[in-house]
Design goal:
The chain has 269 residues and is an alpha/beta fold. It has one domain (2-262): TIM Barrel (Alpha-Beta Barrel). It is built from 11 helices and 8 strands. It has helices at residues 12-15, 18-27, 43-52, 74-81, 99-102, 112-128, 140-149, 170-178, 195-203, 233-244, 248-262, and strands at residues 2-7, 30-35, 56-60, 86-95, 132-137, 161-163, 182-185, 209-211. α6 crosses α7 (140-149) and α9 packs across α10 (233-244). The radius of gyration is 17 Å and the shape is globular.
Length: 269
């Protein structure tokens, strides 16, 4: 019934207990999940996970905040994207959060490598016509500008995709929607101090809405602070269903249909 559109099952916290994680998914009626790659080095493991289970799929990409890892060319990304069960390109985007503390006091100008990497991923996604999985943190203006510069405007030839784990403001959500993107909400939407985010979740057209866990992080209430798994995505669905005045079953059905529509070729239950 539920679809977790973004998780990291290859991370040690989850891969080391994969049978239990998959059993919990089944019990929670989470029938499908998309496993997201963060580096090229980790992609073989992520892809093997997707190939090992009929209800898992994966993406290929390099997280914007990952340094000193292999930097793929557009052609490399295209070769990986052509493999079975690879349905998207990413996680990609920009992450400027905490530059002074986390990035050795560097300025935005010093992060040109992030912007070039992002462009490479966009070009690969457009070439293979598979959607982008966008990560943007403290960098929304540049993220949107680069998408526009690379031709991502919702017209023919656009790859489209999803702004995952959305935590930006309403204006950014509107801009992403105007470019043809979907918006995905994680467990953050359930947090007590996230009323603004719940308001955005109520605003986003229901046909452009996705739900996710981003596990093993960001467990929703009532499990905040604990290890997150795809089995917790129904709590995200329940929160959004409540603010939209929908039955949780209807929200689950709609977001699963949205997942199918975005990630073309994914077989619906």
């Amino acid at each position: 019934m539920f679809t977790d559109s973004h998780c990291h099952l290859n991370f040690p916290e989850l891969i080391n207990q994969l049978p239990q994680v998959l059993a919990a998914m089944e019990q929670a009626q989470v029938s499908r999940a998309l496993c997201i790659a963060c580096t090229i080095e980790d992609f073989p493991q992520v892809h093997a996970l997707a190939m090992s289970q009929p209800h898992l799929w994966c993406t290929v990409g390099v997280h914007p905040d990952t340094e000193e890892k292999h930097e793929p060319s557009t052609q490399e990304l295209l070769e990986y994207a052509a493999l079975p069960k690879v349905v998207g390109v990413g996680e990609t985007g920009l992450d400027y959060y905490g530059m002074q503390e986390r990035k050795g006091g560097r300025s935005i100008a010093d992060l040109e490598w992030q912007r070039q990497r992002f462009r490479t991923h966009i070009r690969a996604a457009r070439a293979c016509q598979k959607p982008l999985v966008i990560h943007t943190r403290a960098a929304a203006e540049d993220t949107l500008a680069i998408l526009r510069e690379e031709g991502e405007d919702g017209t023919a030839g656009s790859a489209g995709g999803v702004f995952h784990c959305f935590t930006e403001n309403l204006e950014v959500a509107k801009a992403a929607l105007d470019l043809g993107f979907y918006i995905s909400f994680s467990g953050i939407v359930t947090f007590k101090n996230a009323q603004d985010l719940r308001d955005i979740a109520a605003y986003v057209p229901v046909e452009r809405l996705l739900i996710e866990t981003d596990s093993p992080y960001l467990a929703p209430v009532p499990y905040r602070g604990k290890l997150n798994t795809p089995a917790f995505v129904p709590y995200v669905a329940a929160c959004i269903a409540q603010v939209r005045g929908l039955a949780v079953e209807a929200l689950a059905q709609q977001t699963s249909a949205n997942f199918d529509r975005l990630f073309t070729g994914v077989v619906s239950d």
